[in-house]
Amino acid sequence: MPTLGVSIIDWIETFCVHGPGDIEGATVVIDDEFAAFIMRCYGVDKAGARRVRRAVISRPKGRAKSELAAFLALVEGLAPCRFDHFAVAGEVSPWGYEYAVGEPVGKPVTRPEILCFATELGQAGNTYDAIRYMLDPETASSALVEAYGRVDVGLTRINLPNGGAITPESAADSSKDGGKSTFVIFDESHLWVLPRLKRLHQVVLRNLLKRKIASGWAIETTTMFAPGEGSVAEGTFEYHRAIAEGRVADSGLLFDHRQASPKHDPQFKAHRLAGLKEVYGPAASWMDLKAIAASYDDPQTSAAEWIRYWFNRPVSLQGAWLPQLAWDECQSARPIPDGAEVVLAFDGSFSGDSTALVAVEIGEFPHVAVAGHWEAPPDNTEWRVPILDVEDAIRTACIRWRVKEITADPHRWARSLEVLASEGLPVTEFPQSPARMTPATQRFTDMVSTRALTHDGTAALTRHVSNAVLKTDSRGTRIVKEHKSSVRRIDLAVAAVMGVERATNQAAVEPAKQVFFLA
């Protein structure tokens, strides 16, 4: 992929220094992980148009995400970072970078408007203070001062040499509607949980579209959000999932997330160290991983918070359901063979939610596969479940497999179930009462824990399983959404629980095979 990123990395290493901290003033060397991110951020197509309009980098606490954003702010304010032409043989940049033939060559943004957003103005210092340090004539690199002169640096505004500015912004007291930004930093977007902050995020993203030639874009830096808080980071993760599953088409989002893999159990110190080395990547060489690992044992430390901040994993503040490792190890990416005996489980809604159809192959080790899934695209309030399509999908499944039972909660779908039953299909009712769902949830949980079932690994099924939380009350324990109005769907998980329960019961009532003994 053609990219301006290689020359931009060279520009950063030539003109930038580290901001306030242990190595302030030291020459910058971009590690391979951040280099790959920068190269993707500045990718262009064959005509030179930028590919990325919104980039997200999700890393654990202390990974220098804010400093990376500060480097990019300097690039956007001073460097040749918009496509101009493709290099010819022997072409060299003003600072001495030698372009390869055909490599994209950039030009500076005309009058850049760069905003550094945080939830509070003081917190903007995470990025803005680093920018000030790198541009202040007293602390900037000599190469930058020589090339760009003495930049006018202030506490609340930096005036750039050829026009334009960099400003710190508080998301708490500014709507910014009407702005014409060319580059925006949303710092620590997992903290953006208030409705006005989420509205501001959308307003600013729209503003970036106003200057076509400037080709504005945004970067979000974040550590893992707490599922259920409804933060900007959580919304971005859900949007990425929708793109990955094909529910939304958007090639302009770059989503770069790294977390410790599920095999690392933080209850064990050796696992903590291994997980930290994995998630920090190149930064593991300068982070105090032993001290971070030891902090888990502090009785005042929340295990969930530790996992979020240091392993960069999503951990619900409510009751988690299935361990990710156990679920992953149950995956068997195979289809259910045509003609196999199955139970179909159906969990449906009409609007604003999703509708799920799951097939469970009957046998000693039930196999769960998604047979149909209809879910509203993000922010589409007009979406409705295509009822006739759902009914046809059930009929098709009954042609493909030997369906022993179609089990469903009749709530809201009684008419469709009556239609299917009138056609001779084996419809049974499974009301999702606590009395039904409690033993079904327990059975499913036990079977995943003991690897006694398999699933096809469909991304949406895994997402719905990870969204589900356990609710325990006087009527039992079962899976529910994190809260009633949550947009994090669990319908496929519910259908899987219902389907496994009925498939297990079907297997139990199969007539025993006769065994003959020779005299």
Short structural summary:
With 519 residues, the protein is of the alpha/beta class.
Account of the protein in words:
The longest helix has 18 residues, at 491-508. The protein starts with a helix and ends in an 11-residue tail after the last helix. It is built from 16 helices and 18 strands. Helix 14 (434-449) crosses helix 16 (491-508) and helix 15 (459-467) packs across helix 16 (491-508). It is of the alpha/beta class.
Summarize the topology.
Layout: H1 5-15, H2 32-41, E1 54-58, H3 65-78, E2 82-86, E3 104-107, E4 113-118, H4 125-135, H5 142-148, E5 152-153, E6 158-159, E7 165-170, E8 183-186, H6 195-207, E9 217-222, H7 232-244, E10 253-257, H8 269-280, H9 289-295, H10 303-310, H11 324-329, E11 341-347, E12 354-361, E13 367-375, H12 387-400, E14 402-408, H13 414-422, E15 427-429, H14 434-449, E16 454-455, H15 459-467, E17 469-473, E18 476-480, H16 491-508
Parallel strand pairs: 1-9, 1-10, 4-7, 4-8, 8-9, 11-14, 13-16, 14-15
Antiparallel strand pairs: 2-3, 5-6, 6-7, 11-12, 12-13, 17-18
